[in-house]
Design brief:
Blueprint (H helix, E strand, L loop, with lengths): L3 E5 L3 H15 L7 E5 L48 H5 L9 H13 L7 E2 L2 E9 L4 E8 L4 E7 L1 E4 L21 E4 L13 E5 L3 H12 L4 E6 L12 E5 L1 E5 L2 E4 L4 E3 L2 E4 L27 E2 L3 E2 L5 E3 L9 H15 L8 H16 L4 H16 L9 H17 L33 H5 L40
Parallel strand pairs: 1-2, 1-7, 2-3, 7-18, 8-15, 9-10, 9-15, 10-11
Antiparallel strand pairs: 4-5, 5-6, 12-13, 13-14, 16-17
Helix pairs in contact: 1-5, 5-7, 7-8
Keywords: FAD, Flavoprotein, Monooxygenase, NADP, Oxidoreductase
Protein name: Trimethylamine monooxygenase
Cofactor: FAD
């Protein structure tokens, strides 16, 4: 009997699962499972879709996306390159290592548009509940079809949770925030750096979202950015407009007080305090409970829910590698659902989880974390027919990226890296990243990146920096329409 599979989410990880089945079909699989992919947004792309909305969407569902205007990749595209679809193939030429968000989304969409997978997706459909029956050995998935305004239910043999874990904010309490006279928001609701032109910002947190939002705001004319860290400062060579202080303790009017006794007068506060693993559509006995770590406790091979392996999670761990890790997981999950892979018994799976967790516990640096996740991906791809993409080489690019950021946090996007698929070294940006105010794909892709007058211009901004936003006229609002070269 043909298995029936539910995929929850049509972002990069859900699309990876659809693409895995399509690859099997192209390789000669005669009988594709009965697949339904539920997506609450009106289009595919998941987190990479930009919306001006915050809070609730047009259907009253919690807004999924955290993307903001003027966002560029904060990691080399060479570490995001699909094994079976290079950036050169998509755009017809090399492009720089750090493209804008809309250009990356165009690349993601280009790959799945080549596959006949959209027919499996039911858009504007939010998952309400997933229930397992010991009697039937099947899941019942109940959804709200917003196009029809009706609840619908169906039975499935397998469920793949591909909803991500960067959409439900972790919001801590700080005394005085309720009386703060300025803007307070979580990074999930940050949409436009120009809102903070001329402002003094406090960013609570010291991870990638704080780093990127802080640099964005200075780029577009913020007066000052203060980072408040819990355990350790980021330690970059920040320009004078930036400072790092210990954790916020309380706010009194516009004065923020910190653990070391220092204070800052601030106009706005952005909580860059992370996200929760939140699966409100799953009962407690099926929901993954974990913090953001490289190897969560309860999923075998980082995929299969230990207490019921017919429930699978994609992309549920902390990530250096993203798209290819999702692919590696999706290919392995596919082979299990097709009966090509047999999972060991509970105790053997538990031992394997313990093995990887013990390795994770010993990690003491980003370099070791990168090598750990590369080894994890290698463990998966060596068991399937996923194309070779030299994950270890991508790991080396990640390590170089870390060094480049440490050397020049404001200019690291001006660097170029080689593709591990084609060997081509990316051309430089047409100008230093801090000078490029228009992030629209139309503006980005009109450049001849191979032109001899184009050169990489690096900066080490140790002194006061006057952002381009204060020296130039405002560009047209960026568009997010799909554009190919």
């Amino acid at each position: 009997m043909t298995p029936k599979i539910a995929i929850l989410g049509a972002g990069p990880s859900g699309l990876a699962q659809l693409r895995a089945f399509e690859a099997a079909r192209k390789a000669g699989l005669e009988q594709i499972p009965d697949i339904v992919c539920y997506e609450k947004q009106p289009d595919w792309g998941g987190m990479w879709n930009y919306t001006w909305r915050t809070g609730l969407d047009e259907h009253g569902e919690p807004v999924h996306g955290s993307m903001y205007r003027y966002l560029w990749s904060n990691g080399p595209k060479e570490c995001l390159e699909f094994a079976d679809y290079s950036f050169e193939e998509h755009f017809g030429r090399p492009i720089p290592s750090y493209p804008p968000r809309a250009v990356l989304l165009d690349y993601i969409m280009g790959r799945v548009e080549k596959s006949d997978v959209r027919k499996y997706i039911r858009f504007n459909t939010a998952v309400r509940w997933v229930e397992w029956s010991d009697e039937t050995q099947k899941f019942t998935v109940t959804v709200m079809n917003h196009d029809r305004g009706a609840l619908e239910s169906d039975e499935f043999d397998h469920v793949v949770v591909a909803t991500g874990h960067f959409s439900t904010p972790q919001v801590p309490h700080f005394d005085g925030l309720d009386r703060f006279p300025g803007r307070v928001l979580h990074a999930h609701d940050f949409r436009d750096a120009r809102e903070f032109t001329g402002k003094r910002l406090l960013l609570v947190g010291s991870s990638y979202s704080a780093e990127d939002i802080g640099t964005q705001c200075i780029k577009y004319g913020a007066e000052q950015v203060t980072f408040s860290y819990r355990s350790a400062p980021m330690g970059h060579h920040w320009p004078e407009q930036f400072s790092e202080v210990p954790l916020l303790t309380h706010v009194d009017g516009k004065v923020a007080h910190f653990r070391d006794g220092s204070t800052r007068v601030v106009d706005a506060i952005v909580l860059c305090t992370g996200y929760k693993h939140h699966y409100p559509f799953l009962p407690d006995e099926l929901a993954l409970r974990t913090d953001n770590r490289l190897y969560p406790r309860d999923i075998y091979k980082g995929i299969f829910f230990q207490r019921n392996p017919k429930l699978m999670y994609l992309g549920a761990q902390d990530q250096y590698f993203t798209f290819n890790m999702f692919d590696a997981q999706a290919w392995y999950a596919r082979d299990f659902m097709l009966g090509r892979v047999d999972l060991p018994d509970f105790d053997t799976r538990e031992q394997d989880i313990d093995h990887w967790r013990a390795r994770e516990e010993k990690l003491s640096s980003p370099v070791e974390e990168i090598d750990f996740q590369a080894a994890y991906i290698r463990d998966l791809v060596d068991r399937t027919d996923y194309p070779e993409f030299h994950v270890e080489r991508q790991g080396e690019v990640f390590k170089q990226w870390k060094q480049d950021k440490k050397r020049d946090i404001m200019g690291y996007r001006n660097n170029s890296y080689p593709s591990t698929l084609t060997g081509t070294v990316a051309p430089p940006l047409p100008a230093p990243w801090m000078e490029i105010l228009d992030d629209s794909p139309e503006s980005f892709l009109r450049h001849d990146f191979t032109a001899p007058e184009v050169s990489t211009v690096g900066r080490t901004l140790d002194r006061q920096y006057t952002p381009a936003a204060r020296r130039s006229t405002r560009p047209a609002a960026p568009r997010t329409a799909s554009v190919k070269a």
